[in-house]
Structure formats: structure tokens, C-alpha cells
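assembly run, all chains below
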Amino acid sequence: MATRREVAELAGVSEATVSRVMNGVGPIKEETRRKVAAAAAELGYQLNALASGFAKGRSGNIGVVLPHVPKVRLFSTYYFSEILSGIGDVLHQAGYGLLLLYRNPQARYDYVSLYRTRRIDACLILGASSLPEEQASVFALADEGLPCCVVDQRFSRAGLPCVGADHRAGAYAAARYMLDAGHRRIGFLNGSPHYSNSVDRYDGYRQALAESGLSPDPELLFEGNYSRKSGQEAAGAIFERLEALDGMLCANDRMAIGAIQGLRERGVAVPERLPVIGYDNSDASSLTDPPLTTVEVPFYEMGRLAAESVLARLAGEHGRASDIEDADGAAGAATVANGLNKAADDVLLPTQLIIRRSC
Amino acid sequence: MATRREVAELAGVSEATVSRVMNGVGPIKEETRRKVAAAAAELGYQLNALASGFAKGRSGNIGVVLPHVPKVRLFSTYYFSEILSGIGDVLHQAGYGLLLLYRNPQARYDYVSLYRTRRIDACLILGASSLPEEQASVFALADEGLPCCVVDQRFSRAGLPCVGADHRAGAYAAARYMLDAGHRRIGFLNGSPHYSNSVDRYDGYRQALAESGLSPDPELLFEGNYSRKSGQEAAGAIFERLEALDGMLCANDRMAIGAIQGLRERGVAVPERLPVIGYDNSDASSLTDPPLTTVEVPFYEMGRLAAESVLARLAGEHGRASDIEDADGAAGAATVANGLNKAADDVLLPTQLIIRRSC
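ok done. output:
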């Protein structure tokens, strides 16, 4: 195993600082703690460092709370797996553990106790919706002012920052592309309106239609649950309206792939008879036949930013109380203020239309 | 939120038992604790239950330790995502948190401190290899007799149980299928021999060849790292040997998909010019063109069984010390003995050839 000196050299700090971090003695600048933790991790010393470094009342774990849906293998969806990869990379680099917790959707979830019992220092919420119990649970969390970040679901509430993507612009670009190609009767297979990202996509779609003097036809709106199976099932309803349609937008690639499969089973060729555009630019989108025209969403980056935002918030809190390594107290206070300001803003990452052959 | 009575009714226990679990008062049978924790979780009470229930020195977290490879999005691979889904479902049901931790491959990892510092109660090791530092780390864990399970990597060492799959039989079936179709010059694109599952696949391949009076031709053996890119790169070497080949086995679907892509770029049609068989039966395998003939591995079930094995071990340990709800002491002792016996055995799940169109 590495020596204290090796860790100090790699981190670019003194051996005394390594000891202070390792033993949790005295206040340590968060950035320094992280450099030492990263160096110690790289050299195989991470656990001892954590054990001591977090002895001051932190768990060293960031909670990632996911909805538990029986029979759905969440990790196997592009959406969650990419977001988790981004979160995981940032937490690993910072020397934190990632505590995965499932909540039962539609039941109240007691986020606050996770902090009180020191199971987590901060929390990232994935797959949240505006269903009453879910919303009440995250609002209770925000009321306590605890460090958290909601991923890809906007609640537009102080203390409940969101890192998401600009789905309105994404769906707008997809609809615009179809309209520019001369299509006029464009259907939309969306997800539940309990997700702000579904609502945003619908808004983008509607806006593009409006600019062409059209409005959404309720008969051409379909709803799935973002699973491939739900896309395949929707194909039945889409098929019944086939004469009224000359294009289909789908709110994710999985539903698009399911819908294309279901349409093919009914003898409908994509894109010849009905062009289809997916959403996400998942791995599968380039593998299918035909490869999907789709909208790229930087989910990995979304996970990274969400994780960075809660770590920045934790660093700010640390700075407030005890950051003696700062040149002066004012600098420490500024960090905190920035951290809080940042936390109050929703961050929406850009999306991009990827043109392949399904449309 | 639910009342104590509702939790008691759902769990089928008395209200007093719910209180004992909630408050961690007195010894509780592990099965009872789990029933109550599951009921409380379902009704939105899981955190308080855990906070109290684990106050007796348990963290309530099971560690899942993954290799960290820069630029590789581990969660986005079928292999890890399915195993994690299985683990996650079991831990959720049992009321445990899943603490994801990355180790740096090739560096010593201090598993033991994770237990000592109460970050985890047990640990599941994914993506392990027989590289010296990795092996030394897990052997140190086994020496301490701590509850753990290695997933899909056999170390064949007491105290280091493994839940994996019968990859020897899987590769045998794939090679047998090609041989039965009249192919005689079958190449093999395998992963690193530091993984026991690579070695097992090679053994199955060799055995099938041997039964047909053939032996592996070193010129027809290729190595990738289980990534699509490595398959695409291997296509160059495969193309150079094309005249000597009439079939290719690949050790996973990603490499097969990459190899098919690389071969196609060189004008080689699959399966017409060169039949290819993948391995894993990943989501992607049925989406590609051509759909892959492959070997199904029950990764989700593998994750479930691995998680169940460490929970059983924890229950056994609890039983040893304090399971006063058992009818008598002998029953408790039997549980422990079974737990330990089970832990010493490697479990290999069955694999199955799935025939599609790439071969």
C-alpha cells in the first residue's frame, strides 16, 4: 500500500495535510480534502481516508433515489444508466460513495430522515414526477434546506434545484424537421404528463405546429409509459388513425422502437408509409432497422452536473463554518452565496436533432 | 403516512413487534425484521424503520463494488445493468440500501475497512479479475470471514463464494451449433484471460472442437476487452485471416456487434460470408441487423442470487447471536451452518443458445 508521503506528493499537499484529512483533525478546505481523497483513492488508501475524513459527522455517501417499479429493470434503460454513470464518475472522483435507494412511487418518501440518520450528506432525485405524494415528499425536503438536486424534473420551487435538458427545444426541433419536410398530420406518442419533461416536449411540438399555422389534433395524441412495450401497444391505436397521419414523434427511443415494431407487424413500413422520430439518441437508436432519427439528450452530462451541484453545495456549507484555509472570511462567504444562488437555478442542457433513416 | 397498525397488519405481526423493529429494542428475528421493513417501506415508513432497526451497529447498506474504468459507462453495459437490477430489487425488498463504490482496478482495495467503519454490512464484488492486486484484495476480505459474494468470477477459495453462470456450457453450445452446421475453421474473439468467465468460455469452445477432432488454431484466436470498439478493432485482424475462417464466436454481444460492423466496412457480409455468434443475449442483440444468434445468460437472476446469498449470510449471523424467536437453539445453529455451507459453494446458473440470423 501507498505511504502517506506518496499520497501527499500525488495530491500536491504536505504530509501534515494528508494526516489532517485522514484523521479528520481540524477544519480542512473542501477542495484540499477532495484532492487528498482522490490521491488516496488512486493509491488504494481511499477507505481509511474516508473513514477518518468523514468521522466529523458526514457519511461520505450521496443518496441517489430512484422510483421502484416492479418488473422494470431501471438500470437497463439508457436514461437511468447514463445519468447514473455521470453521477458515479463525479462521486468517485470526489471520494464519495453512491447510496442507491428506491422509493415507492405514489407513497410518501421520508427524505429528511436520510439526512438526520446520517445515511447521506446530500441527495439526487431521479425519475421524480408531480404526483401529489411525490411532490409533497420533495417539497418537505426543500423546506428543510437540505442539499439536493432533482434530475430532469422541474418543480420550479426555491431550494429544489433541477438539472435537466431543454426538451421543449428538442421536441420543437423534431417537429420542425418533419414540418419542413412537408408533413402536416404529425402524431405524438408522449409519456405521462406527470413528468415535466413530457409536458415540455408537448409544448415544443405544439409550438412548432403553431408556427406552421397548425394545432395539435387530440385524435393524434397517444400516451405510453416510456417502455418499449407501451410503444408496441400504442402501435394499435396509431394504426387505427393511420389514414389521418403522415408522421409520428415519439417521446423516447424505446417507445419509438416498440411502435415501429408494432407498425411493422401490421404491415406499415417505416419510414416509407409513416416516418417516425424518436428521442434520447440511445445506444439502441443507431442499431435498429431503420436507424432512428432522434433527439440527442446529454444524460451523462446531466448526471455529472447534478452530482457536481450537490458537492458544490456541500463544499459551500463546509466553507461557511470552518474554512480556515481561505485567505479571508469574505472569500468563504462568497463561495456560500454562489453555491446557494446556483442551487436556486434550474439548469437545462441543450438537445440536438440527429438525422438517420426513420424519417 | 401509515400508522403502526397498518404496518403491523401488512407485515402480519403485532404492533408491539413493529415497535421493537422500529426502535431496535431487543433481539428480532431477521425474517421478522425484514417483513416489517418491507411493509414499512411499502407504506412509506421505511426510513424510520431502518434508522432504528439498524441502530444496533448495522449500516443497513450492502456494498456493491465495481471497477472504475475512465471513459467507460459501466451502467450502460447490459452486463452490469442487469446484474445491478437484480441486486437492487432484492435489497429494496429487504429494506437495505445499495452503496455503490468504485475500486481502481490494479490498485489494492481495502474491503475490510468498509465493514470496520460500518459503511456496509456485506459486500458484492462485480467485474473482479485475477490480476494480482485485485486477487490479494478479495483474499484479504475472505481471510476476515466477512459476508461477501463475488459475481461471475470464480476464485475457488473458501469464504469467497461466487454466483456466476456456466459459461463453459454456453460457449460449448455455441461452438457445437457451428460445428453441427458443418463449420470447421471457427475463430474465437474472447476477453481477457484474467476473468474466469473468459477462461471458461475458451474451455467450452475447445471442448466442442475436441469432440469434433479439432483443436483451437492460435492464429484464429483474437482478444478484445468486451467493448464494441474492441470488436470493431478486432475486425481488422479477423479480416486478415478471413480465408482461414468459416465462422466466428464472440465472447459478448458488444464485441460481436462491433466486429460485424468492422467486417461490413471491409465488405464482408454476415452471415453469408462469415457467420458470427455473440454472447449474453443483450437487448441490443435482437435489434441489430442481422439479429444475433447468441447465448443467453441470466444476469438479472445472477444479481438476485448474489444479493440473496449475502442477506442469508447476514440472517445466519444474526441467528447465531440473538435469535430468541427461534423455537430452540438448535434451529438457530442449523441456520448458521447452512448459511456457511452455502457460502462455500460456487453457484453457476445455466446458459442457453438463442438462434437468430447472424449464424
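Confidence is low (pLDDT under 50) at residues 46-55, 319-344 of chain A.

The domain at 4-53 of chain A is CATH 1.10.260 (434 Repressor (Amino-terminal Domain)).

not gonna interpret more than that til we talk
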